[in-house]
Write a structure and sequence with these properties.
The complex is a heterodimer. Chain A is an all-alpha fold. Helices cover about 85% and strands about 0% of the residues of chain A. Chain A has two domains: about 60 residues, no CATH class; about 35 residues. Chain A contains seven helices and no strands. The longest helix of chain A is centred in the C-terminal third of the chain and has 28 residues. Chain B is built from eleven helices and no strands. Chain B is globular. Helices cover about 80% and strands about 0% of the residues of chain B. Classes of the chains: A mainly alpha, B mainly alpha. At the A-B interface, helix 1, helix 2, helix 3, helix 4 and helix 5 of A face helix 2, helix 3, helix 4, helix 5 and helix 6 of B.
């Protein structure tokens, strides 16, 4: 249960920081960075967090089902912008792959 | 009486988890990425809600606990990053350089192309984080005014697209280094791409997981700035 507590504490602290900085970045994302930092600096024990984290990450897909079901209300918005969304997403996804792959190959080879 | 049980929170939640388990086992048997369990669960759940006549808002209320768990799993990604960080040993600079350039190129390209094609600002913000894992994408898009239901569906489809074309595309363009391939898969197609990278090999899989976590953080930090100043 200690693992759950650590995760919730990071989230809570993240929410507080998010609130104080105007809410541009979600509290749970700041919480993620805090958890990483706390593990890195050995403030909290990785063995305590591991089982909870593995469980959460393994079932993450289930947790966002309610958002996906939102398709039943966002259907019209998506259809109205169908081609803009498809073409922009496809081109951008291809670009990311090529840019990441190329930049890594170029910069890693020099060493 | 039966109707009130069917429409209860417990029943809607049980149905969601049941469909997820059923679709997952179907996927394990057929193994076609089109029949991705999560996508099937979305569609089957929508069909059920339509038949039961339950509005989406009601369903969201009933499954609030899943939303809470989603928030927790975003924090848990910090653990994933901690675990994957060893992969970066001695290569921190090339890895960070490639992820950062991918992140910026990705956001700018998706936003400008969609804007050019006439999408409004809500849509732009909703699809700007389209290459990061769904929980992060939702957490990034929501405070900036994006429509999270659009975000989750688009992000998911992007993952499936990347999963299908990824390795073929990379080979076609001469990207053959397994580490480069893994990074490219995870940064462009998040968890769904990482699942494909793991099948390809251990190095690709590990790099892909690392890239997914780094891309999430980079997008969470950069998107609010890009949104404010560039579009």
């Amino acid at each position: 249960m200690l693992g759950v507590l650590y995760i919730l504490l990071c989230w809570l602290a993240g929410n507080a920081i998010s609130y104080l900085t105007g809410g541009y970045i979600s509290g749970n994302i700041i919480g993620m960075v805090l958890l990483f930092a706390a593990l890195e600096f050995r403030i909290i024990d990785a063995d305590k967090v591991r089982p909870v984290a593995k469980m959460l990450l393994g079932t993450m897909a289930l947790f966002f089902v309610p958002y996906g079901v939102g398709l039943m209300v966002s259907y019209e918005t998506i259809m109205k912008n169908f081609w803009a969304i498809i073409i922009a997403s496809v081109v951008s996804t291809v670009l990311i792959m090529l840019v990441v792959g190329w930049v890594y190959q170029k910069t890693a080879r020099k060493r | 009486m039966i109707e009130s049980i069917l429409k209860s929170d417990l029943c809607l939640l049980t149905l969601t988890i049941g469909l997820y388990c059923g679709c997952s086992s179907l996927y394990r048997r057929t193994h076609t990425v089109f029949l991705h369990p999560v996508l099937l669960t979305f569609l089957a759940m929508i069909a059920f809600l339509k038949i039961l006549g339950v509005p989406y808002e009601r369903y969201r209320e009933a499954t609030e606990i899943l939303n809470f768990a989603l928030g927790m799993s975003v924090v848990a990604l910090g653990y994933l990053l901690y675990e994957q960080k060893e992969q970066m040993k001695g290569q921190t600079a090339p890895i960070l350089a490639s992820i950062l350039s991918g992140c910026i190129v990705g956001i700018i390209s998706v936003v400008y192309i969609a804007e050019y094609m006439g999408a409004d600002r809500t849509i732009l913000t909703s699809i700007a984080p389209k290459s990061v894992t769904v929980p992060i994408a939702v957490a990034v898009a929501a405070p900036l005014g994006g429509e999270v239901t659009v975000t989750s569906v688009v992000v998911f489809c992007v993952g499936i697209f990347g999963n299908m074309i990824g390795f073929r595309l990379l080979k076609l363009f001469g990207i053959r280094n397994p580490k480069a391939q893994g990074l490219a898969m995870g940064s462009a197609a998040h968890g769904v791409g990482t699942a494909r990278a793991i099948e390809q090999g251990a190095v690709e899989g590990a790099m892909s997981g690392l890239a997914m976590a780094l891309m999430g953080i980079a997008t969470a930090l950069l998107l609010p700035l890009i949104e404010k100043y560039l579009y």
